[in-house]
Amino acid sequence: RDEESLTKKRKTSRTGRFWTAITHAGCDKNTNLIPCFRNIESWIDNLKKAYDKPNTLQGMFQVLLVVLSQYPAMMLTYDLFEQHKKIEKEYNYIKGKAQTQALTAKMLDTVTPFSDIKKAVLRKFSDDTQQRLFIKLYDEIPSRDDFGDVFIVYDEKDLDITKGSDQYQDQNYLLIKNGVAEMVVQVYKTYKLYGLIRQKLSKELSKEIIKSIEDRPRQHLFIKDASWKKIDWNAVKKSKAPVGHNELYANGALTSFVSQMLKDAGIEKGTNEVGGKANAGAINLLRHSKISEFFKTHPTTSPEEREIIAKQFRHSPITSEAY
């Protein structure tokens, strides 16, 4: 009986939603619905204007699809296949939008805010560590695992990228000029979509990076942490031969480095607190914490803006100005 009652309620709700939906097409219960469906573009636009919540709009598009699907004779007789496709396209889009927002809402409650993670890392690691450099860089340029092979240059002419040098054509690099460090990212997952990214770092971080390179001469911004600790840097400075690419992590990936950094700082997987249990979180944990904190501190962000920001963050680095 409960199941029958639930089914009846669903049918009643769906019917009511349909009669509500057709009013936005300028129709009513006594109207021939075929012309309403033929003018589907206008109908869809009116529904979008009337409802700004994805879940509500999704329900409206769903009931239109149900009507066309349950009455195939209408589609066959009146040739409404194109209209069906347009409704289905809108339904799938708004469904994805609703899922994105639901995921974002879940992230807000389950992920440690990035500011807490950053504070924990800075408390744990001293000024002469690359963990401090990394967390500060990530704060200014959130990204995927794109910083494991960042070449340090002082003049882009040395790279010869414009001439298609095999050595540097597919290379992320840090340009240091006039006391300012600028990150240039051209090797990342969605490069074809977003293109080359250039971002100047803050004066504070630029100063720290320059001092770090002077104290530990190297060709790349980040190297294996074990090498960082064991290398005789005074000898390197005397030799005037900066540490090279052979000290990079395998495949230029910092996953293990970031995972260990978070574990040492007490940021634990499966919890939303500093000082939890065994952690295997890495780059994704940072990405989620960064974007969730943005939404918490920007509660009035519109649904459209929230979706755009989420997609940008998931698929490409975004500038710190967005934060």
Describe the structure.
With 323 residues, the protein is of the alpha+beta class. 57% of the residues lie in helices and 6% in strands. The protein has 15 helices and 4 strands. It has a 4-stranded mixed sheet, covered by helices on one side. Helix 1 packs across helix 4 and helix 6 crosses helix 14. It starts with a helix and ends in an 8-residue tail after the last helix.
Descriptors for this entry?
single chain, alpha+beta, 15 helices, elongated, 323 residues, four-stranded mixed β-sheet
The strand order across the widest sheet is 1-2-3-4
How much helix, percentage-wise, in residues? Answer: 55-70%
Ends apart, CA distance between termini: 53 Å
Structural class: alpha+beta
Q: Give the count of helical stretches.
A: 15
Instruction: Estimate the mean pLDDT confidence.
Output: 79
Query: What is the gyration radius calculated from CA atoms?
Result: 27 Å
Q: Which parts are unreliable, with pLDDT below 50 for 5 consecutive residues or more?
A: 1-10, 271-280, 314-323
Q: Major sheet, described briefly?
A: 4 strands, mixed
DSSP strand content:
5-15%
Number of strands: 4
Overall geometry comes to: elongated
Order of helices and strands: HHHHHHHHEEEHEHHHHHH
- What oligomeric state do the depicted chains represent? single chain
Topology diagram in text:
Elements: H1 2-23, H2 33-38, H3 40-50, H4 54-70, H5 72-78, H6 81-110, H7 114-124, H8 130-140, E1 150-153, E2 172-177, E3 180-185, H9 191-194, E4 197-200, H10 203-215, H11 225-230, H12 233-239, H13 255-265, H14 283-297, H15 303-315
Parallel strand pairs: 1-2
Antiparallel strand pairs: 2-3, 3-4
Helix pairs in contact: 1-4, 4-6, 6-14, 6-15, 7-8, 7-13, 8-10
